[in-house]
Structure formats: C-alpha cells, structure tokens
Amino acid sequence: MSAAPGEFGGRGSRGAGMSAAPGEFGESAWGATASGLWPDTADLLPGPVLDTVRSGAVEADRSGRISAAGLAALRGASWPGLAIPTEFGGAGAGVLRCCAAQRRLAAADPALAVAVNMHLFSTGLMVEQWRRRADVSWMLLEAVATQNRLVASAFAEPSLGGSVVRSTLRARRGPRGWVLSGRKSPCSLAADADLACLQAQSHPDDGPERLLVILLPTTADGVSVDRTWNTLGMRGSGSDTLRLQDCEVPDDLVFYTGPVGQDDDVVAAGVIWFVLTSTACYLGVLDAALALVRTLTARGRIAHLDASRAELPSVQAVAGEHLARVLTLESACAATASAMDAGADPERLLPAVLGLKQHAAEVLPAAIGALAEVCGGVSLSRAAGLERLWRDMQAIRFHPPTGLATRQFLGRRGLGLPAGLDLDETAPGLRALTAASSIDSPTQSPTEPTTEPSPTTLSRSS
Questions:
Q1: What are phi and psi of 148, to 5 degrees?
Q2: Domains of the chain in sequence order
Q3: pLDDT in tens, 300-359
Q4: Which of 155, 282, 324, 380 has its C-alpha lying 20 to 30 A from 264's C-alpha?
Q5: CA 122 to CA 137: how far, in whole Å?
Q6: Is residue 95 within 8 Å of 346, Cβ to Cβ?
Q7: What's this model's pTM, rounded to 2 decimal places?
C-alpha cells in the first residue's frame, strides 16, 4: 500500500512515492520475536479493527482529539467487555490476555490504547472487588458488558502527587446518598465515556474520613467536561477535565470503601491491573517504533561506507543493547500478568509490579531515544512518523503511582520500613506506623550502644 500524506513515504518526504515496506505500519519482526511471551488475541482484536484504529492515529495526534472511528471500531468488537467475566456477558480475558491485546492496540494507535486502558483499569478493579468481596458489584460489571458501556477512570487530580488512595474531591452525605463537588484532571475518555469511575474522600463532618470508589453516569446532573487536553504526546487520548458540581450519587453506585491513605488487597489488585496493562501499551509503542526504525535504517545509507545504517555494527550494537532490556521487560510483564491470573496474592506481588513500572519508565524512553538517534536526522521529521511515537512514549513517566511514590515504596520496603502507595514526603504516616508497630516490640536496653551519631560527632563531621 502507498503511505498516506504525513506518514513515512508520503508527500514531502525523501521517500515520496515509495511503497511502505512489509510491517512498516503494522506489527514488526520484533513483535514476532516477543510473541512467544504473549497469547494470541486475534479473537479479541481482529485485524480489520486494528486497521481502522491505525488509520486514525495520525489525525488524532494532529487534531488533539480522540479517534472517533477507532473508538467506534472497538465498541463494534465488544471491547468494553474485555476483562469482564463471561457469566456477566464479557469476554472473560484475564490480565495476561488484556496486556497482549493492549500491546497490539497501542502499536496501532498509542493514544487510543492509553485512553481505553483507563476503562480496563476500572473494570479490572471492579472484577477484583467482586471476586474478593462477593458483593453486588457484579451488577455494575454486567451493565458495562451487556450495554457495551465505556468507563473513564477519573482518579488523577492536580494536587495528589500521584496518590491513588486519597482524594481532594470531597463527598458529603446528602438525603439520597453522597454529594460530590470538585474536578478530575486529566481524565482520558472524559467526553466519550458513558460512565466515570472515580475516587472521592468523605468529609470529616460525616464521621471518620473514608475513601469511596464510585461508578457514575457521565450524563448525571452536575457532571461536565472542559476541553483542556493539549500536550506534547498522547494528544489523541481525550484526557480532558471532568467537573462535578453538587453531583448526587446514590449509595448503590459506591462499590468500594476503605481507609484514606492506606491500601488493601483490592487496591493492590487494581494497581496491578493498571500497571501491567499500561506497561503493555508502551511496549506496543516501542514495537511500532521499531517497525519504522527497521525501514529508516535499511533505507538510510552512509555514502563513504557504501552501507545502510542497519548494516553498521555500531548501529546493531546500540539496537541490541536497548532491545535486550526491552525483552527483559516484556518477559517480566508477561510473567507477572500470568502470576496474577494464577491467583497470586496482589499485596505480595505489588512490590515486583511497582519495580517493573519503574524499570519501564526508564527503559522504554531510553530505547526509543537511542533508536531514533541511530536513524539520523530523519527521526525529527513528522513525515517519518517516529517523532510522534517518541512524543507518546514520554507519557509513561506520569501515570500514577508516579515515580516519586513508587521509589519511596520500594526503598522503604527494601529498608524494612512500613510502606504504602501514598506519597509521604514529610513522613508523618511513617512515624505513626513505626510507632504503632513498636508498641509490642522490646525497647532498646540502656546498656546497648546506640547506632545513631551523637551531636558532638555530627558537629565534628560537618
């Protein structure tokens, strides 16, 4: 097929009029290399659906609006029911199959994949709530699957620091349940979803503060959307601002309650769903980038060496160094997803998953940057397509739990200190948890030497 204007080989590029190489706009040979780690998902995402999604990616990036055709194609494939058990009308895909599907979807349109990944997070969280609490949340799952409803995950807030276990959105008791006022931003699918899954924090006047997780129709009174999304990358994710003003929520739409600032097995499981599926999205972005890199390095020649860039050992070494790390990440993502599907305790699995998230945020941007560099200056050309994927990849650093909270969690766990998903920079929570855990511990004997330096020692060393 001929490349469309704005894609590599299109009007205005050095390769104008040249036909695209096999795999240039589809899945690369690297996808085949990594495919042994991932199950086949052609039944979940048929080829024609991916073709439609892929065809809208460039325009979605240019306009800064989500691809309506791509979203319609996913609805037509009953994608909203992907993670919902079959007994409730869904496809029954576990974490591993959802990751594999998201990886393929992101290779076609990264922004659309990240947007609908928020739906997967919300439905995955509801699935875990139902499995672990055996409550009536199955009715919400059934409604999403049988009515083909899309769910926006409205968990991000401007002043949370990436926390997922508290909220600045306050919920007050009203005559028919809860009344919400506040804003959620950025919120992917805000203007396109049928429902919004969000967390709120109960007001102190209504008793001990609690974290509430709510499934709310986006057509409810008091819900509005501001078009605020205009960014470097993931421009076509529709991550606008969701506003709530005196929005009434009946109690039966609150499917989870828990203590503020603390996580449990349901929260841990939900975070695992999000981290693994979102990491798979960015692995798909890298796969799409590598397909373009193969074409660019094969066509780009170094005149005095009479060789293509791909033939140069130095280029091969750079690619090999970074792709070794990427393949390690692919393996870790698939393995932890399989462990989750096999029934692993999410609270025990969480540190490994957060370590994977931190690794992905370092490895994948570095890989796409190095691969772009070996292609030469053509990487900067919009016609080549690689710069769009580079921009999209940068968003991996900003998903909650953010790097600050993740590194703190892992560092405290490694040092034997209490750790949670809440960013605790001033450590009031750490002091409280440490004090509580030491109540039943023996105190230090007055005759035992202290390991802390004395004020005199500090003075001399300063």
A1: 55, 45
A2: 151-259 (2.40.110.10)
A3: 999 999 999 999 999 999 999 999 999 999 999 999 999 999 999 999 999 999 999 999
A4: 282
A5: 12
A6: no
A7: 0.86
